[in-house]
Amino acid sequence: MNRVLVIGSGGREHALAWRISQSTNVESTFVAPGNAGTESEPNISNVVLDVNDFVAVVKFCQIEDISLVVVGPEQPLVDGMVDHLSAAGIPCFGPSAQAAQLEGSKAFAKAFLQRHQIPTAAYGEFTEVEAANEYLQNQSFPIVIKADGLAAGKGVVIAEDLSEAEATVADMLAMNKFGDAGSRIIIEEFLVGEEASYIVIADGKNFIPMATSQDHKARDNGDIGPNTGGMGAYSPAPVVTAEIDRQVAKDVIQATLDGMAKDGMPFTGFLYAGLMIDQQGQAKVLEFNVRFGDPETQPIMTRLKSNLDQLCIAAIEGRLDQTNCEWDDRFALGVVMAERGYPFAYDKGHVISGLNEVSPEVKVFHAGTALQSGSVLTNGGRVLCVCALDSDLAQAKSKAYQAVDKITWGSEYYRTDIGFKAIK
User: Fold this and answer.
1) 71 Cβ neighbours under 8 A, 6+ residues apart
2) On the CB side of 213, how many CA atoms lie within 13 Å of its CA?
3) Which of 51, 86, 98, 291 is most deeply packed, by most CB within 10 A?
4) Domain count of the fold of the chain
């Protein structure tokens, strides 16, 4: 029986740990540091552990006889947690630090895509304000400007005109708005179409697609307002037709795994391609993530029927070609409940009420929450993701929002139109 440690504290980690804890092969599931949601799950224990201290993580794994570590967030992956734990003989699921550059550096990812002829937007890479502004003179608008490094999903600006673009360049390169992450920027063409998330589990050579999904990045109804880490998601995504699925599997995912292997850094872990699908049904890569997306993980995990720990171990051992994956046929839809003010300044420490009034067929995943004296408090910008399943997407949406209506902390904010593109 497996004893599993999940690294992270958000909604993605709650969903991964919850699914792992349901496995027929798992005896114990630990989450470091976890949140109020993981703490209240019957078969999950939170662990006080500095996840940036890889020596401490190894020691915990040795003491607790951990047979699998699953890393949720991108930072420990980019910092080399998988390399460190693997060297200590602890099976750790995720990419090496070298392979994690696909997310850790947008410049690395764009150069990789170009080198291996994987479809993506035209771009330029800059470290100097003057050169970036010169490049902007000959571009059409809107245009996309990205901080090169990790910026917690917030280092992307869509500039509508030249003056906004120049101000953004100055913010990132001269004013140091994103610190080290923004000391290099990417300026790329604005792609038109519909976004989709294509996530696979990979073993360096083979892959198994996860269920397709689509998230809503913009804060407000109608997909407008500032970009966030995601305000809700649903699975499957009707925009990913059978033809697009085949095209992406071959021209994006397999081409990426082949390219990474050829470059001497084979990719094992969750590989997430953020796609833009145009009106002709052609998909281009917007970005790579080297871990599961949040909030896509939550609806996808509610549909996964296979043992997640077994899939991760098969990937680590390079035998995904002998493994398959079972899914619930129903739609899953998740609504993110955020703190008013997110993605900018927001309060913490509000008591959340109504969690016990939610129907048992709805699953509430916690993101920014903490337990204090028996109460669940808000502890982040995105607080909860409320997920429901149904054979009809509109019904799944209705169930999720009925649950959302029961939960309050006085300053909650959420979109009311999650799934609108697929439902219309």
Assistant:
1) 7, 8, 77, 81, 82, 92, 93, 94, 291
2) 34
3) 291
4) 4
Same domain for 318 and 207: yes
- 3-state SS class at 387: strand
**Dihedrals φ, ψ of 299, to 5°?**
-65, -35
Rounded Cα distance between 223 and 144, Å, is 17
Neighbours of 163 (CB within 10 A): 9
Which residue segment(s) compose the domain that 157 sits in? Answer: 122-189
| Helices (H) then strands (E): counts for the chain | 15, 23
Q: What is the H or E stretch that residue 16 is in? A: helix 11-21
Identify the segments of the chain with pLDDT beneath 50.
none
- Sign (positive/negative) of CA torsion 306, 308, 309, 312? positive
Token readout for 352 is 């959340």
Dig out the tokens for 210 from the structure: 């996860």
Q: Could you tell me if 241 and 284 lie in one domain?
A: yes
The residue behind tokens 């009707």 is 238
Model pLDDT for residues 268-315, shown as the tens digit of each residue: 999 999 999 999 989 999 999 999 999 999 999 999 999 999 999 999
Smallest Cα–Cα separation from 139: which of 155, 158, 156, 120?
158
Is pTM, for the whole model, over 0.90? yes
Domain presence at residue 261? yes
CA distance 145 to 165: 8
User: Is residue 113 situated within a structural domain?
Assistant: no
| Residue 108 located in a structural domain | no
Q: What size, in residues, is the chain?
A: 424
pLDDT at 197: 87
Which structure tokens are listed for 301?
């995990």
Looking at the fold, whether 184 and 199 belong to one and the same domain comes out as no
- Among 273, 151, 157, 155, residue whose Cα is nearest residue 212: 273
